[in-house]
UniProtKB/TrEMBL annotation:
It comes from the Bacteria. PANTHER family: BLL4334 PROTEIN (PTHR36439), DUF1697 DOMAIN-CONTAINING PROTEIN (PTHR36439:SF1). It comes from Kitasatospora paranensis. This is DUF1697 domain-containing protein.
Length: 183
């Protein structure tokens, strides 16, 4: 059986004491679901692993169910394979090599997001901050960091359509996930 390398991106865990998911427990859950070579990165819900399952949505659903059963609360999960993660990093429209990791972010979406969703934003009003849409991803350049970004706040108000999951990672994490899913 062919195995593929994946990353699981958990949304909104271990923030402000809410939805605590210890990384050791996350590794145990993924291993218990039959996935191999399980590793986690940081405490913010990033896991890399291999699996014989080829359907990202099936893997995500299984992990979502296991988390809710184990911890008693729901957590949105996106699963992406190495090829996709690498393509997102390679397609960055900003000069990533010249920026600090805290200045560049990628929001991963569970489905494509229409640019019309953000048409009401006046990009000039947020300069020097900028964003660009990619393949189920949004790239955000925020020179003062995400926490101070007015554009990030405006983008969140124009969030994707109901039913679309979105989770954001800084550029350092984007690159680390590519590295962790190399096999």
């Amino acid at each position: 059986m062919t195995t593929k390398a994946y990353a699981a991106l958990l949304r909104g865990i271990n923030v402000g004491g809410h939805k605590k998911v210890p990384m050791a427990d996350l590794r145990a859950l993924l291993t218990g679901l039959g996935h191999g070579e399980v590793r986690t990165y940081l405490q913010s819900g990033n896991a890399a692993f291999t699996s014989v399952e080829q359907d990202e949505d099936v893997i995500a659903a299984g992990l979502r169910e296991a988390i809710e059963e184990h911890f008693g609360f729901p957590v949105e999960v996106l699963v992406r394979d190495h090829a996709y993660l690498g393509a997102v990093a390679d397609a960055c429209p900003f000069p990533a090599a010249t920026l600090e990791g805290r200045q560049l972010h990628v929001t991963y979406f569970s489905a494509p997001v229409d640019a019309a969703r953000f048409a009401s934003l006046d990009p000039a009003a947020y300069l020097p901050e900028e964003f660009r849409l990619g393949d189920r991803a949004l790239y955000l350049y925020a020179p003062d960091g995400l926490g101070r970004s007015k554009l990030a706040e405006a983008l969140a108000k124009g969030a994707p359509a109901k039913g679309i999951v979105a989770t954001t990672r800084n550029w350092n994490t984007v690159l680390k996930l590519v590295e962790l899913t190399e096999v």
